[in-house]
Structures are given as structure tokens and as C-alpha cells.
Amino acid sequence: MADPQATPQRALRDAMGSFATGVTIVTTRSAAGEDIGRTANSFSSVSLDPPMILWSLARSSSSHAAFAEARHFAVHVLAADQDELSGRFAGKSADRFAGLETERGAEGIPLLRHCAARFECRTVYRYDGGDHVIFVGEVTGFQRSDAAPLLFHGGRYGRLVRQRATPAAPERPETLGAGNLAWLLSRSFHELRAASAEARAKLDLTDPHYAVLTLLGHRDGLPLAHVLPLASQRGAEVGRCDCAALAERGLVRMDPQPDAPDPALHLTEAGRDTLIRVVAAIRAAEADLLGRLAEEDARVLLDLLGALARSDSRGWPPALPA
Amino acid sequence: MADPQATPQRALRDAMGSFATGVTIVTTRSAAGEDIGRTANSFSSVSLDPPMILWSLARSSSSHAAFAEARHFAVHVLAADQDELSGRFAGKSADRFAGLETERGAEGIPLLRHCAARFECRTVYRYDGGDHVIFVGEVTGFQRSDAAPLLFHGGRYGRLVRQRATPAAPERPETLGAGNLAWLLSRSFHELRAASAEARAKLDLTDPHYAVLTLLGHRDGLPLAHVLPLASQRGAEVGRCDCAALAERGLVRMDPQPDAPDPALHLTEAGRDTLIRVVAAIRAAEADLLGRLAEEDARVLLDLLGALARSDSRGWPPALPA
């Protein structure tokens, strides 16, 4: 279990880091009237009646004297998008509060905004905790939002997703099932493709026509000689007659190029409107799919798929038409 | 921010629940020699030198007397798959340790196995914490594993994923890009499909042939009259001649059915081997894709895609061939 290479103190620190926590910024005001703030993940709620919370601070911290003397402090539980703020109050910045909107609490302590939760506290105990001091505060006021929390675990930031049921058992070697990425991707992809196909059928757009419009939506003004191979990468073979048909329908404009034999292709307003209608149908299907997840889970899913999806440099974003 | 409908104590509890935590089980042995254990999320690491941790327990808890008298206790940081254990030690079970393998620590305190981390402690302080008591222990021994942590937030269990960069800005209305589910799904799906296409090409399997083999892989022995429409759902039109070709190649066996005009189709050993080779290529591509993520992130991705993928009841698991 424990890494035998690590020094005992490093190994202990790693073991302590196995306990995941939120991240807080604790603030107060020094006797000299200076705003003080430290990132801390040693927060813990303690008591409901009376309402009490605790956190601990290294005796060696430059903020120690200020907190030891302060009669009030505030704890700000950070939201998932506040990792930058966490870093700022963990580092050695000269003025951590620079540019931050603050309110003022008891005895002028600085209060930060837009956090997941905030507790204004009166210091009631300072307990010995080895190389740290444990500060216990009575909660005199608090706020909460529904923001997803920033997490800290193993020395890194993280996000939270809800616990789910155990995945399906492994399949037989000749089948793919609910435990396979291919199966899961194809399920969701199929729903999006069905929405796209329905919208295209209503607009009388064939696969090659849609491939050309989508390509021009990303890179308007491409010469015909480039449109044909790029659009054909999406599966359906695209020919000159497809482009001519789109021009005849007024969805694409072919402009002669001064120094080239081929015209450049542009989306017309009608072409753009047609494309927008298909994309809107796909976006609606996306919203329907993602609506099956909690908002923060949907965000995590997009993040993870983004980490999976490698971009290539051919200037043609979608790997397949949806 | 705070919900005005909630009672003040409920609102405070909700605000405290905004701070995400890991989950621990704290164990000790009562003076009478009874094993005691409680789920707690009020754990916090305190000091490295000397090594100290804390947790707090309600004075009203039935375990309070035992912990107040105990000279030793152990804290077990739970792994993501230990939510059942957490529930057991949070509830009113008569014997929470029933059926659990335990080791024994100082003075016979029970130690649980397979946790994310474990701290054996000597009680050094018991501090007042309102309706709770804060127990501070000096760490006398510890273990750690690389297991992903179980999380608790807002009264629910959760899992952790690593913090990632902010997603791409929204696209123009006529394009789909890296912020869109359709784009992201199509990227990854395309990689899997390419692996599948390559394997099928090597085995000289057309799309219709592969569709038939895959269908039989899931539901062997289907009558021909059912195979044709089901296999055709996957995109490529499947005809009787495709099935005949597969039979001729020895990949499929057609058995006459006593009371039906149509034969039933079975995978032969050669057919199963062929199918396994394609599936193995897809699985390898899946492993390559998922290998771009940390192991726990890959697990979360599969969970979230599973929540997205609605099953239908047509007995035909894959929505599209990979």
C-alpha cells in the first residue's frame, strides 16, 4: 500500500491527501487593518447547536498571528470554477485581494463573493494541534449557492460527479455491450444522427449536400477543388454535380477566382439559414441527451470526451456528420 | 443564496454540506471489548510533526462513551466502491462488523481492509465542539492505496474527476465544435469505427456481413426472417444473398426449422472466431482511447455515457455498428 520509496513524512502527507476535501479561503483582518486570506482544506463542520465549524492553520504561517488575534473570521467554500482563486490565496502573492470585490463583515473582515458557501464566524476556541492550531468558530451568518464544488485530492484539483450504479458485467468476447465505450458512444451518437437525419430530410438535403454546407459553415470561400475531397472525407462521396445542385437551389454561390480555373464556394444567406436549421435540431437533441444528467455531470462528460477526442489538423472539425 | 423556505438549522446543515468531503469509518473497541465503528465525514488532517488528525462525533451518539474512553482509534478513508460499507456504519445495524475481515490494532481495535487510506491513532485530545466532541489522534501507523475516493456532498455520494481546462467557447449557430456533444461523440466514435473498418477489411467482411455476425453474436439461432430486418437496422441493407454468402464461407450455419419455412441462423466456430477478431480490434481501440484518461476518469466517463444511452427493447444492443 504505502510507497516504500517515500520518506515517512512524504508518505504521511500522501496518506492524508487520500481524504478528498473541498477547498476554502479563510479571511480575517489583522490588528493593523490589513486584509488577510489563506487557502485551506482543513475545514470541517462541527456542531449544529450551537453552530460551529473548525479549520486549522500552521503555526509557521505568516498569517498565524493575525488569525490568532482575530475575534472574527470568514470561511468561503469555493466553487468548481474558482481554482484560480484558490491558487492565488495559496501562493505568495503580495496582495491576494487585488481586484476582488469584497463585502465587509464584523470588524471589517473581508467577505468574498460567488462562492459555494460562506460562513462568518466568531472565534470561540484555539486548540493545540501539533504544528498547527485548530480554530473553532461559532457561525454568526452564512450563505449558500448551488454551485458545484471545487475538490482537492492527492495534491490536485478535481470536480465531483454523482455516484452511480456499478457498470454492467464484462461481455462475452464476441459481443460489445453496456460496459463498452463503443456501444455507449454509438447509442448516443445514433440519437444525434437521427435528429440530424430528420432535419435534413425535411429540408431535402442529401448527405453530400449537407457535407458541403457543413464544410463551408466552417471554412467559407474554399475553392471547389478543395471542397470535393474534404467534404468526401465525411463518408458520402461528394461530386461537382452536388455543388452545382446546391448553387441551383441558391444555397451556395460559386464565385470565379481570378487566378484559378475553379470557382470559390460561399454559403448564401439561404444556405446559412438551412445549415442553422440542421445544427439547431442537433443542438436540441444534444440538450435532450445532456438533460438526462445533472448540470455538473454534463459538464464533466463534455470535459472527459474532450480529453478523448484528438483533433487533427485538416481544418475539418467533425470527424463524422452528426 | 440561502433557501428562505428552509428552517435555520436545515439551511445551516445544507450550507455545511456544500463543503465536499471524503468519507471515513472510525473504529475502536469499547471497555467491554465490543467492536465500535461509525461513519464520519468530519475528518481532517491537522499536523505533520507530530502526525495528528482529527474527527468529531455527536455527544448524543451511542458510540460516544466508547470513543471518549478509548485510548486508540482507527480512521479508514473509504474508496469509491465502498458506499455500501459507509451506509452500514452510518445506519442502525446491530452488528456492523458482521462478515467483515478485520485485522487488530493497538488494544485490539478493529482495522478494516481495502480502504483508500487507514490511520491508526492514539487519542491525544478531546476538545469541546458544541454538540460534538473533537477527537485529536496522534498517528501511530498508516497505510495508503491508490483507490479512487468515495465523496460526500450535499447529502449524497459522489466520485471525483480531475479538474480540466474550461471548455471551448460556444460556436456560431451554423457550426458544431469542441463544445458540442455531437462533435465530441463523433470524434471518438470515428476512431473506433476506423479500427473496426480496418479489422473488417482484413477479414473481407462487408458491412452487411458484419451486421449479421454481430446480431448472431448477441442472439444466436434467430430465424432468417428476423435476421434480415434486425441486421438492416444497423444502416446497411442486409439481404438473403448476404446470409447465403456467409453460409458459403462457413461463418454461419443455416438449420432448417421444423415448423417454419425459414432456416434458423447460427454462428459457426469460424464465424465466432471472425467476430471475436473484429470485437478485439474495437476493444483495443477503446483501450487506446480510454488510456488517454486517468483510470477513475475513464470509469466516470463510462458511467455518464451509460446514463445518457437509453436502451430500447428490440433486443439489438448496438445502435450503430462500431
Summarize the structure.
Chains A, B: Pfam families: Flavin_Reduct. With 322 residues, chain A is an alpha+beta fold. Chain A is built from 9 helices and 14 strands.
Task: Report on this structure.
Two copies of one chain form a homodimer. Chain A has 322 residues and is α+β, with helices and mostly antiparallel strands. Chain A folds into two domains: 14-158, Pnp Oxidase, Chain A (Roll); 181-308, Arc Repressor Mutant, subunit A (Orthogonal Bundle). Chain A contains nine helices and 14 strands. Chain A has helices at residues 8-17, 64-69, 83-90, 181-202, 207-218, 224-232, 240-248, 269-290, 295-308, and strands at 21-22, 24-29, 35-40, 44-48, 51-58, 72-77, 102-104, 110-112, 117-129, 132-144, 151-153, 156-162, 252-255, 264-267. The first copy, chain A, has a seven-stranded antiparallel sheet with strand order 3-2-6-9-10-5-4. In chain A, strand 13 and strand 14 form a beta hairpin. In chain A, helix 4 (181-202) runs antiparallel to helix 8 (269-290) and helix 5 packs across helix 6. Strand 12 (156-162) of chain A pairs antiparallel with strand 12 of chain B, so a sheet runs across the interface.
